[in-house]
Design brief:
Structural class: alpha/beta
CATH architecture of the largest domain: 3-Layer(aba) Sandwich
Oligomer: single chain
Helix content: 10-25%
CATH superfamily of the largest domain: Dihydrofolate Reductase, subunit A
Largest sheet: 11 strands, mixed
CATH topology of the largest domain: Dihydrofolate Reductase, subunit A
CATH class of the largest domain: Alpha Beta
Number of strands: 11
Distance between the termini: 20 Å
Shape: globular
Length: 230
C-alpha cells in the first residue's frame, strides 16, 4: 500500500514559486504568503512531507562528515525513530545531502536513496540519527519507497511539496491523489516560462476534477483537485 498523497503548491498569478520575489500582499508584507502556506500545510494534517534534493538542501546546510570507519551499515533500511509525530522526507538519489541535525523543525528526517550510495554516506546519516531507505535500484523506486514508509513508519498521509521534477515524477507514476494549489494575488515578474511546471510528459495520462475553490486571507485562492488516472 501507499500513503494518501496530496501535492501542495503555492504560486503567484504568473507562476512564481518563491514569495520573496513576489509583489507584496494587501497588508504590505511578503511574509503573509509563507504564513498562509504553512497554515494550509498544518490544516492538511499530513503524517509526513516530502521534497527533492534541491529543496531539502536549502534546509540541510551540512558539510560531508563521514565517520572515520563506516563499519557495518544497515541496508536497505535504517530507522532511527519509528515514533516521531511527523517526518521530513527527502529524495536524494546519489547521497549528496548532509545534515547538521536529525530533524527539520521537529520533524524527523528520512532520506530515500539509490542503491549505489556508498556505505560511508549511510554511516554518516545513521551517526547523525537520521533514518534512510535505500532503493533496490540505482534510481529511486517511488512505489517501493512509499510502501516502506507506510508499513515501517505508519505514514498514512503524505504532503508532496517539491518542484517540477519530483512533482512530475509522482504524477507520471500515478501516485498522487489530490492537487492542492494556492494562488496568491501577487506577481513574480521574473519573465520567461512560468515556474509552476510538472515534468514527465503527462498529456493524456492524468485528469483533474475540481473538488473545491475557496478564497483565503488577503485574496488568495485555494484550488483543490482530485487526480484521476486515465
Amino acid at each position: 500500500m501507499k500513503p494518501e498523497i496530496v501535492c501542495l503548491m503555492m504560486s503567484s498569478l504568473d507562476g512564481g514559486l518563491h514569495p520573496s520575489k513576489w509583489t507584496e500582499s494587501p497588508d504590505g508584507s511578503r511574509k503573509e504568503w509563507s504564513a498562509l502556506y504553512q497554515q494550509i500545510h498544518e490544516e492538511l494534517r499530513g503524517d509526513a512531507w516530502i521534497v527533492g534534493r534541491v529543496t531539502m538542501a536549502e534546509m540541510a546546510k551540512g558539510e560531508p562528515h563521514p565517520p572515520q570507519s563506516a563499519g557495518s551499515v544497515e541496508r536497505p533500511n535504517h530507522f532511527a525513530d519509528r515514533k516521531a509525530n511527523n517526518y521530513a522526507i527527502a529524495l536524494d538519489t546519489s547521497g549528496k545531502l548532509h545534515f547538521t541535525r536529525a530533524d527539520i523543525e521537529g520533524d524527523h528526517i528520512v532520506v530515500i536513496l539509490g542503491n549505489t550510495v556508498p556505505d560511508t554516506h549511510l554511516a554518516e546519516l545513521a551517526a547523525d540519527g537520521i533514518s534512510y531507505i535505500v532503493s533496490p535500484s540505482a534510481d529511486i523506486d517511488l512505489p517501493v519507497a512509499l510502501d516502506v514508509l507506510e508499513k515501517e513508519l505508519g505514514i498514512r498521509k503524505l504532503l508532496l511539496e517539491g518542484g517540477a521534477a519530483i512533482n512530475g515524477a509522482f504524477f507520471a507514476a500515478d501516485l498522487i491523489d489530490e492537487l492542492y494549489l494556492l494562488v496568491a494575488p501577487a506577481l513574480d515578474g521574473s519573465g520567461g516560462q512560468p515556474i509552476v511546471t510538472f515534468e514527465g510528459g503527462l498529456a493524456g495520462k492524468t485528469q483533474l476534477s475540481l473538488i473545491s475553490a475557496e478564497t483565503k486571507d488577503n485574496g488568495a485562492v485555494a484550488l483543490r483537485y482530485k487526480v484521476r488516472i486515465r
